[in-house]
């Protein structure tokens, strides 16, 4: 598919892809076109057996994504259209969260509103020191609508999530790391390289095991410890049917690096 609002770049040799929201003049705000293109791009990448890890970022030095497009929000006429818009964003977040490949969010600047909500749906968040993270919807007379009221408290706890959602003020990348919203903070100039390096490292791991780990962690956090461990046991057991489990254990015994095929 041809994209006009995003860039999708594949590095075939490394088996990774980089998805960039490309509206820097609007700080990469999420209009309907961007939301639909991102949905199509992640579908396409999930089906591509030659892509084992994905980096998502924003174009330009200023913003990852400064939220949903406020001009479009302003034009939404009624609750039905508002709910549709929210659903579209929520579905994109679920798609990323459930994607079989790991998705690394390289947060290069403002991650506000829907931008932070998309970032929270990713697996690992690396932020530039200059990044700013926030849920400023309250200042527009609304609330987060792409899952932010749900994923933010799961990551940072109820109190700090309320501080951010009620207050609307952004926090720094460093504070984000302190509260568990960001996993690693790096100088702006190193962000793209660090995210790419991590993606390349993950692309060398067994893809089915990565997908199983992602499903067990994400699914387990939504249930109790017993059910979560059942989920883990099922995923663990399934991996014993894979060629990669045979290869990984054999390679260890033969004292050589494993060559995982994703089978
Ligand atoms: N939706 C639509 N357009 C947006 C946008 C958004 N969420 N965020 C930024 N833009 C646009 C601005 O309107 C401006 O467009 P223009 O040049 O045509 O006027 C352009 O991007 C640059 O933004 P600007 O506000 O001039 O940059 P700044 O450096 O002064 O401020 C922010 C940066 C991020 C603080 C500010 O843009 C902002 O508050 N954005 C909205 C954040 C928000 O509320 N997001 C949640 C939406 S639900």
Summarize the structure.
The protein has eleven helices and ten strands.
Name its key features.
263 residues, alpha/beta, 2-enoyl-CoA Hydratase, Chain A, domain 1, Lyase 2-enoyl-coa Hydratase, Chain  A, domain 2, 2 domains, six-stranded mixed β-sheet, four-stranded mixed β-sheet, 10 strands, 49% helix, binds coenzyme A
Q: Can you give a write-up of this model?
A:
- The protein folds into two domains: about 5-205, 2-enoyl-CoA Hydratase, Chain A, domain 1 (Alpha-Beta Complex); about 205-255, Lyase 2-enoyl-coa Hydratase, Chain  A, domain 2 (Orthogonal Bundle), CATH 1.10.12.
- It has eleven helices and ten strands.
- β2 (about 15-20), α1 and β3 form a beta-alpha-beta unit.
- The protein is of the alpha/beta class and about 260 residues long.
- The chain has helices at about 30-45, 70-75, 80-100, 115-120, 150-155, 160-165, 175-180, 190-205, 205-220, 225-240, 245-255; strands spanning about 5-10, 15-20, 55-60, 65, 105, 110, 125-130, 130-135, 170, 185.
- About 50% of the residues lie in helices and about 15% in strands.
- The two termini are about 25 Å apart.
- The strands form two sheets. The chain has a six-stranded mixed β-sheet with strand order 1-2-3-5-7-10, with helices on both faces.
- The structure holds coenzyme A.
- Coenzyme A (COA) binds next to α2 and β6.
- Coenzyme A binds near residues 29, 110, 136 and 137.
């Amino acid at each position: 598919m041809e994209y006009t609002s995003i860039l999708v770049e594949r590095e075939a040799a490394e088996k990774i892809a980089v998805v960039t929201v490309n509206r820097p003049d609007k700080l990469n705000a999420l209009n309907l076109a961007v939301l639909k293109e991102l949905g199509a791009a992640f579908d396409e990448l999930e089906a591509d057996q030659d892509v084992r890890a994905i980096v998502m970022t924003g174009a330009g030095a200023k913003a990852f994504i400064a939220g949903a497009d406020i001009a479009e929000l302003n034009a939404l006429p009624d609750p039905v259209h508002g709910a549709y818009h929210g659903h579209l964003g929520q579905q994109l977040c679920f798609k990323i969260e459930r994607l079989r490949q790991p998705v690394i969010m390289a947060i290069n600047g403002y991650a506000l509103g829907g931008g932070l909500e998309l970032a929270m749906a990713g697996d690992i968040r690396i932020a530039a020191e200059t990044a700013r993270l926030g849920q400023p919807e309250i200042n527009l007379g609304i609330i987060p609508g792409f899952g932010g009221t749900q994923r933010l408290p799961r990551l940072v706890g109820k109190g700090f999530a309320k501080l951010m959602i009620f207050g609307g003020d952004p926090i720094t990348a460093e504070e984000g790391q302190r509260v568990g919203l960001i996993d690693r903070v790096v100088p702006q100039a190193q962000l793209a390289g660090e995210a790419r390096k991590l993606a390349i490292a993950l692309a060398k791991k067994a893809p089915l095991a990565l997908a199983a780990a992602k499903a067990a962690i994400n699914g387990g956090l939504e249930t109790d410890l017993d059910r979560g461990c059942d989920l883990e046991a099922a995923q663990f057991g399934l991996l014993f049917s894979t060629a990669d489990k045979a290869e990984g254990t054999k390679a260890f015994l033969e004292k050589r690096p494993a060559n995982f095929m994703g089978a």
